[in-house]
Amino acid sequence: MRKYRYLPFGYKLMLSYCVFIIIPVIVISFFANSVYVKSIREQLESSVHGTVSQMIDNVSYKAGDVIRVSNFFYFDYTIARQLRNFEEGWVGYEATTNFFYPKIEAYKQASSVNTWLSIYLHNKLFSEMYRNYQGNDPLRGNSDNPYDIYHIDRIQKKIWYLNHSEELYGETMVWKQIEDDTKFGRISLLRRLVNMQISGKLQEIGFIRQSVYLSDLFQAIDYTKIGSDATIYIIDEDERVKMISGPSSYRSGDVWDATDFKDYMVIENVVPSLEWNVAAVIPNTIFQEKINEVRLLTFIICLIFTIVYFVSGALLSNYFSRKVNKIVSVLDSFQEGNFHKRTNFKGNDEFSQISRALNEMGQNIGELIHKVYVADLDKKEAELDMLQAQINPHFLYNTLSSISRLAKFGELDKLQRMVIDLAKFYRLSLNEGRIMLPIGEELEQAKAYINIQKIKYEERMGVTFDIDPQILQYSTIKLIIQPFIENVLEHAWCGDRIHMRIVGEMEDNHIVFKIIDDGVGISADLLEQMNDPEESISVGYGIRNVNQRIKLYYGQAFGVSIFSRLGIGTTVLIRIPTEKPANLKIN
What we know:
single chain; alpha+beta; Heat Shock Protein 90; 3 domains; five-stranded mixed beta sheet; 16 strands; about 50% helix; EC 2.7.13.3; cell membrane; kinase; phosphoprotein
């Protein structure tokens, strides 16, 4: 008996401990460390996010306050009506003095943010009212002159005015640094004044600019609220730094690049109304020391658990492997045919139950194997004998009737040939009680049957043999070709002539026989019935008989297949192996 190499149970048990105990401990420790580090980072990020969000909310509130003032002008239809219907003379002067200017001052004073308001009007009947600041910052003297009024032609050729977005009612506005805003550290809210009372269309009647100091708008941005080592950057839509709170190597106007801070925690949030970014940069050193402490503690715990599990695993695997080795030695003896070896374990555990079961199995298995083997052989012989006995009982009756008819008409020559072929046919069929016979004899038996039928059908029946000589060295179970020839002669006639071609050849290391006829063919429904495994169906009986005998002897991979088309003919394909099975003697 061949011995197979295998990994001993003790080693497998030890490996299982390593895989399912030690490795999970290492993995869990690694993830615990990662989770703790991540938790520290997330807590810091959450804290910074909250602080930055509060700062941004404050900035948004101040920006919203400026926007609310612009909304007063934008949605005040009385201002739009005054600007559209303004008249020269005393009426216009009174409207300007008693209505327009007071309303502008009231709206502007409603803002809590110090702003410089500039209004540019299309209606040139309004007089301009402004102060010559001589290059100074208008916001410095804003208390004396809170606003300026200009004609629109002062800005109509300005790039920032020409590039202002198409008007969407109540939505189009932009924060932008224009003119001298950058010089004086300001930013301006730019917005149209429109009139909708003309055919429902938006008509620009003016333009407003509200300028506010960046320091006022971003007053809430303070790096000390995050940490002494932190820095907060205010970044515009062009990715340029506009303000810095805290220690930094950047300067105002530099291009922002987050990749410069690979060793830092960078948290960026957008100020919604301005579309500017607030970036908080925090060095990793503030939590790196805690991370190192956690990693060292995790390593020590993991090392201790590894040593403990390794020692306990080695002891347990040695204890159980001794019992398994004894069981394996008994099974090896059983495999070699020795069912007398026994093993016993103390106690009442699973190994004791296995040993008792093995001992009982060793006592009975030889006898059971012998009984099953003999019973299987008897069953197979009985089934083959039954199928063999079912072959051709009506053929003998028909042939004897033909012999009687020939004798009656005195055709002694034909009678003699028919008797000789009939004797040859049954001599080969009986085959001294053997199921197997050489393929050459199987073909001789088919030819004997054909000779008998030619005496009956004469020239109306034609048969051609196409046999590969290579297959004659093999054997087959008997009577697998003749039943299909008989089936053709009984059912396949198309007119008064029929021709058959019998082929024997090698195909994919198997032997294939084909019985091909040019008869009437078989309908699809009838073909399905012929392949039906139920014995109660009368059609296809001979076909099922051959198919069952082949499968019983050679296995399910072999058997009979039928292909047919009405009016064209039928092909029966019989597939058997090229092996030479031992002869099975039937007593």
